[in-house]
Amino acid sequence: MNMTKSLFLALLIIGNRCFAADAASDKEPIVINPGPPPSDAVVLFNGKDLSQWRNDKNEAAQWKVLPDGSMEVNATGSIVTREEFADCQLHVEWATPSEVKGDSQGRGNSGVYLQGRYEIQVLDSYNNKTYFNGQAASFYNNAAPLVNASRKPGEWQTYDIIFHAPRQSADGKSILPGSFTVLHNGILVQDHIPVKGDASTAAKFSGVAPKGPLILQDHGNPVRYRNIWLRKL
Ligand code: MG
To answer: pLDDT tens digits for 55-98?
Structure first.
């Protein structure tokens, strides 16, 4: 057997072993009920109460729960989940006020903060100009959405967010970026955008956190939310 042939054979054997090892480590996907909400999700708001939420003073959340199963921002401050999360898939439904008041950042402003620090902006961006990386579905102050998929004021809209947190490298010397992928009303608007984990991606924070709460922002506008669930990744 010449050198080329034996090298080829060796590679073939190694290749087969790798394949066998991969196949052996594959776990059968577990069966879930896709819902909604999916059976493996943490339901953070089911339309009845705010038991999963507190305010930033660690008291019970005070947003208004409405008869239609939604909750409404009411100038009592942002609300914070009692549980903390790392990587996740998050589903949120929201609606800005049907009566339009204000403009730019003053119209239907709220926000969904992952790990309490990285905001996916909630805003009435229907015929409402503002800076691009501050409009609805932007990664606030970091990345504009790919398109503006906003529905009209008062109409229910959805965010489906896949978040991977930035983390410390194994040697502790650098931060490995995380990512945001976001669908707004089913439309891809953030396509695996890096979350760098330094002051550039969350102005008030530096470094990374293993976990953090979900925060819904009270920006003084009566934005409503419903059907909030999260799957830990
Ligand atoms: Mg906001």
So the answer is: 999 999 999 999 999 999 999 999 999 999 999 999 999 999 99
Compute, in angstroms, the gap from residue 132 CA to the centroid of ligand 1. Answer: 13
Q: What is the Å distance from ligand 1's center to 45 Cα? A: 20
Q: Please, which residues have CB within 8 angstroms of residue 159's CB and are 6 or more apart in sequence?
A: 90, 91, 92, 93, 94, 112, 120, 137, 182, 183, 184
CA of 109 to the centre of ligand 1 (A): 5
Query: pLDDT per residue over 200-210, tens digit each?
Result: 788 788 889 99
Side-chain half-sphere exposure of 203, counting CA atoms within 13 A: 5
